[in-house]
Structures are given as C-alpha cells and as structure tokens.
C-alpha cells in the first residue's frame, strides 16, 4: 500500500487518560485512533463534516485492537493511520509506536461503511466520492 494513504500523528498521553499507576486506560486508546483517523481524513478533504455534506454517513462498524505494551503518561508516541481498503468499506489500520525507540506498542484497525442517511441503508460498494477524495482512480 502506498504511504500516500497514510499519516503519522505525534501524541502524548495526558494525565487524565491514565490510571493511578500512570498507565493509559485501555478505552482511551480508541481516542488516539480517532485523532489519527480524523487527521488522515482531513488530509484528503473528507473528514466527517465533508462526509455528511457529500450525502453519506460513515459509522465505525468494527474496531479491533491488540495491546502489545502499555502506553504511559507523557510518553511520546507516533500513531500511524493508513487506508488499507476502500472499495466496499473504509478500513484503516493503525500502529502506535514509541517515538524515541520506534517500538510497536499497539496495533488496531477500524472499518467504516457508507450509509444513506435518508434510508439508513448500508451500501455494499463505497460511493465514488471516497475513491475521488483518496485519489485512487476508477475501479
């Protein structure tokens, strides 16, 4: 997959994201994925407001995460988000790494599908606007 469909985001866990031992609470990892996903979508001019303006809703229908090592308070991180699939759904893979060592700390993926807001029906083929925004050309 081309790195053109990816972005790296620098993050540092805040104190309020952590338990009393300074370890990031597992549910907050999804917040970090969301930050990276929004940055990635903004890169293509197709963040959530643009998705809705184009006539489609894109709910997350699947999210998976593998916790390799704990994230800690104030640890400098790099979250990589990369579009892996776009034909029938929007799948984004993530890797959270320690910024200093490059050590992989977490891997994850999310799947979003296009939904017609008028009918609530899920589309089984991504609308052409997604391909256009990603710059991946016709099928």
Description:
It is a single chain. With 139 residues, the protein is of the alpha+beta class. The chain has helices at residues 29-43, 48-53, 128-134; strands at 6-11, 60-67, 77-85, 90-98, 104-112. The chain is elongated and about 45 Å long. It has a five-stranded antiparallel beta sheet, covered by helices on one side. It contains three helices and five strands. A hairpin with a 5-residue loop joins strand 4 and strand 5 (104-112).
Defining traits:
139 residues; alpha+beta; five-stranded antiparallel β-sheet; elongated
Give the total of beta strands: 5
Structural class: alpha+beta
Indicate the low-confidence ranges by residue numbers. none
H and E string? EHHEEEEH
Distance between the termini: 16 Å
Strand content: 25-35%
Tell me, rounded to a whole number, the average pLDDT.
95
**What is the count of helical runs?**
3
- Tell me, what's the shape? elongated
Strand order of the largest sheet: 1-3-4-5-2
Helix content: 10-25%
Rg is 16 Å
Largest sheet: 5 strands, antiparallel
